[in-house]
Amino acid sequence: MGAPAAAPQRDALPDLPACSGRAVRDLVHGPARPARLLSVHRAAGAAYLRVEGAPPGRDVLALLARGALALPLGVALAGPALPDLPPRALLGRGVLDLGGVRVRVVRERDHGVRGPLAAPPPGTAHLLPAPVVDAARGLAAALAAGPGAVQGPVRGLVGLGPGLTPAGDDVLAGALVALRARADAACGGGAAGVAGAAGAAGAARAAGAARAGSTRDLADALAGAVGAALGRTSALSAALLVAAADGQALPEVAAVLTGAPGAVPALLRVGSTSGAALCLGLRVAAAAGRGASGGCGGTGRASAGEAA
Prior knowledge:
By secondary structure, this protein is of the alpha+beta class. The protein contains 11 helices and 8 strands. It has helices at 25-29, 130-145, 151-157, 167-187, 190-195, 199-228, 235-245, 251-257, 263-268, 274-293, 304-307, and strands spanning 15-21, 33-41, 46-51, 60-64, 74-77, 88-92, 95-97, 102-109. An 8-stranded mixed beta barrel has the order 1-5-4-3-2-6-7-8. α6 (199-228) packs across α10. The longest helix has 30 residues, at 199-228. It is globular and about 60 Å long. This is DUF2877 domain-containing protein.
């Protein structure tokens, strides 16, 4: 009877190349830390892991098969199926060690919004539960009132609704991404660029920077209020909210913001209510932007009803 086969050496484990989102850069390339499997959804090609010792809201990673929804938290594989997933893994220094296989990150993807912004999407309130719509209107009114008014409405939205990503969270994620994108679009080259500009072009850029500052104040206030309420929702949804606050979004959301053909129907196909709730959040942000200054800052006010 022959000797039993030796266990494979760690250096001999197969590597699966992958591309990670910028939102999980610190998790992927930081020190090696244990990760616990939260859930597996093989039909959707997604699995979620929570990394021990990472800050709340920045501690969840999505392992994605080819064709899965391109979450900004994702480590996306080239293959069409997920590998076998143990209950515990090790993540860090660019590698997710799953025991029998290693996922090695070789590229990074920025999920930020690029390009000129389009008009807000059509209303989707009729596709969502009344409590979510009412809470979204409350957020729109708070944003119109100014940065200091958002904390209460945010607490009413975080964790509102069932599922992995409650609809209230999706509304907030849409609003966060859109406000960041609108501030960046208005700012153009940023404050340093404005300071060095001259003439009519310089004046236009300076006006844009002032508008961006007002919109960025709203974005910062909204992000701060959401960050203070992360304990009211799931670990996955909290991480997606933090990514949205950083301007990282689903490609379907970015496509709607930039007016790509067919973008709205594609976003509405995301989840049972997620796409509609994200669209509503984009409208809330657009109304807040117009209310702040007829574009991004100033003295106008948008109506809460218009946002829905």
